[in-house]
Design brief:
single chain; 431 residues; 8 helices; rod-shaped
Amino acid sequence: MLLAGVALDKAFQRVLRSNIAEQLQSLTFSLLASAELDHNGQFSIPAQLPQSDITIPGSGLVALIYDHNQGIVWRSPSSLGEQIPALTPISAGAINFQRNKGKPDLPFIFRLGSVWGSGDESDRFLTFAMVQSKTAYWRQIKDYRETLLQWLGGGGLLILLIHGYFLLRELRPLKRVVKEIDAIEQGKSDHIQGDYPTELALLTQRINRFIHSERDQLERYRHGLDDLAHSLKTPLAVIKGLESKQGLNADKTVQLSEQINRMAEIIDYQLKRASSVGINTLGAQKIALAPILQKIIASLDKVYADKNIQAQIHCDPTLTFLGDKDDLYEIAGNILDNAYKWADSKVEIHCAMISKNKQQWLNIIVQDDGPGFSSQSQAQITERGVRADEQVPGQGIGLAVVQSIVQNYQGTLHTSKSTLGGAMITLVFPL
């Protein structure tokens, strides 16, 4: 539209200058036809001129007749008070149009050279000139540009609105696809639904096939790990059962038993670590947090019934965990089991949603009134990248599993001293 406006403006100026040149030429020839030379050699111009503007002072149109010495022979009444630029004579029969391009203060000038006489030495060489101010010219240019701007601006705006409408309409399915993929990542849906245009249908079908393929592969992976664990645990159980029948002394029997237990712990740890889903996989779902904690507490109350632990859960029923239910059971189960194991009489669980760095986080705090962590065990628990075979037997393997799963969910695990006097574990997960 901008280039079209510039081109049209240039074309209009060319046409307008051409029309002015033709008009001035026509007026000059009319003036030439009206002029008469009397017997005294003086020009007489009739009172009724062909163009009335040259008789009105200030009209912007001036007619002149001058000789080869630039002496004015005749000038129209409209020249009164006008500043006429210096004009040079031209040869007889010559025509010249001076448009003064790029000089808006100089007028348009049309000149016609002529000769008066019988062809002898008394002939007079005269130049007829029409001088027109550019005031009217620029006024027409301004009016034209305003009209052009209105039409092209209105047309351009209309085209932009039409393009915007069709663009938004064509992009609407893409926005729906993005929203559905977000819903899958947030656990609100398990595949892309709805009908889409032909151009997007193939894409959504392949995404759905990819989602189902990943879930099937994850399921096969878990089954394979279960089979591996079962296959390894059976020979270990046989070895453990036979250790007392091989005639080994007491020290060797203890060493063999420790190594067998160690192998079993490693298998449990690697199995749980490898089967963790994580927040960035398509297996993540929104899981209500409070019911899971209540089930775990109910089970632990039965296991540790002789300790008579008083457990309190402070958790909003609307809070959810984004991930896999088995992972949540593994995390909460290990931490609460440790809390029950070391607590004297009290265990408290606090859950809340917090805002940090313009993001929402799930905060879970478990604390007890037991002896708490030693400085050495606390450093090992919070250390990034601790492996199963480096854990202290008993408490170490469970918390190492929790640490691994929490890191897989891009969360953090912190240990500190509880307000109840024992240990406190704080878990933070991104929402």
